[in-house]
Amino acid sequence: MDTRRVDYLPYLILLLVAAFVGFMAWAVRGKSSQVFGPTIWHGPDDVRAIAVTFDDGPSESTPEVLQLLARYDAHATFFQCGASARRLPEITRAVREAGHEVGNHTERHPRLWLRSSGFIEQELEAAQRSLGAETRLFRPSFGVRWFGLAAAERKLELTRVMWSGIGCDWRLDAEATAKRLKDATRPGAILLLHDGREMQPAPDISSTVGALRIMLPWWREQGYHLVTVSQLCRISPIGPKSPGVSSSPSPKPST
Ligand SMILES: [Zn+2]
Predict the structure, then answer these.
(1) For this structure, is 225 an active site residue?
(2) What is the pLDDT along the chain (255 residues), one digit of tens a residue?
(3) In this structure, what DSSP letter does residue 156 have?
(4) Beta partners for residue 226, in sequence order
(5) CB count, 10 Å around CB of 179?
(6) For the chain, N or C: smaller number of CB within 10 Å?
């Protein structure tokens, strides 16, 4: 009896280790995980509205996205890296002036796991300085959360936003990206695309732009309004320095 119990022990330990690793992977990367602090990953489903979000900008390719959004009277949220915003301040300005929302995506797009609380706070704080104090939303680079992140967000009064659907536009072509977006579209969806590729200068975002050319007319046809994350989730006014961005809780219909 005793011998059999000893035989099972290594398997039991392995199983527990595997379960712990699986749990940690989900806690750190899972889009809906709340383990490392409160996370918004979708909006209310009582209005036919979605929030399209763009990570990793600003880049030289962002203006093409802005032109397309303007053509469809669509508003979006851009999670930008502070260092890129300092390199291209006129593009960050243009994003806000067009009525879009800007969120914090760290200063230099690091992976935050296994980092100290001090490092994490510094990344968020530096990006706040680069992007402006009116920035109220935060999305972790690579979607990675870690110990110390929630405290840094609280200190800087940032609300963490993940997503309900992801286009994988950095590795798929326009059609495949658009298909993923169509499948993920439903009232209250928060969808993720990229107007940059990490911090690469002048990135090729042709699959992103191609997917938008397919999706913007489709969303209109389906009666979806494209609004900012703050508007969709009715979380807080964006701040007095964001001209053109309504803090009204009800998304306005696009025409
Ligand atoms: Zn990113």
Answers:
(1) no
(2) 555 566 889 889 999 999 998 988 888 888 888 878 889 999 999 999 999 999 999 999 999 999 999 999 999 999 999 999 999 999 999 999 999 999 999 999 999 989 999 999 999 999 999 999 889 999 999 999 989 999 999 999 999 999 999 999 999 999 999 999 999 999 999 999 999 999 999 999 999 999 999 999 999 999 999 999 999 998 765 444 333 333 333 444 333
(3) H
(4) 50
(5) 15
(6) N
Residue 218 CA, ligand 1 centroid: distance in Å: 26
Name the strand (E) or helix (H) holding 87: helix 82-87
The span from the CA of 11 to the CA of 171, in Å, is: 38
Ion ligand 1 nearby residues (CB, 5 A): 55-56, 141
Residues sharing a CB contact under 8 Å with residue 212, sequence separation 6 or more, in sequence order: 65, 68, 69, 193
Per the annotation, the verdict on 194 as an active-site residue is: yes
Contacts of 164 (CB under 8 A, 6+ apart): 31, 41, 42, 184, 188, 189, 190, 191
Domain ranges (residues) in the chain? 1-30, 49-233
pTM over 0.85, yes/no: yes
What spacing in Å lies between the alpha carbon of 108 and ligand 1's midpoint? Answer: 10
Q: Which of 55, 56, 169, 195 is catalytic?
A: 55
Distance from the alpha carbon of residue 141 to the mean position of ligand 1, in angstroms:
4
Active-site residue, selected from the candidate residues 75, 109, 194, 225: 194
- Class of the domain covering 49-233: alpha beta
Tokens of 80: 């930008």
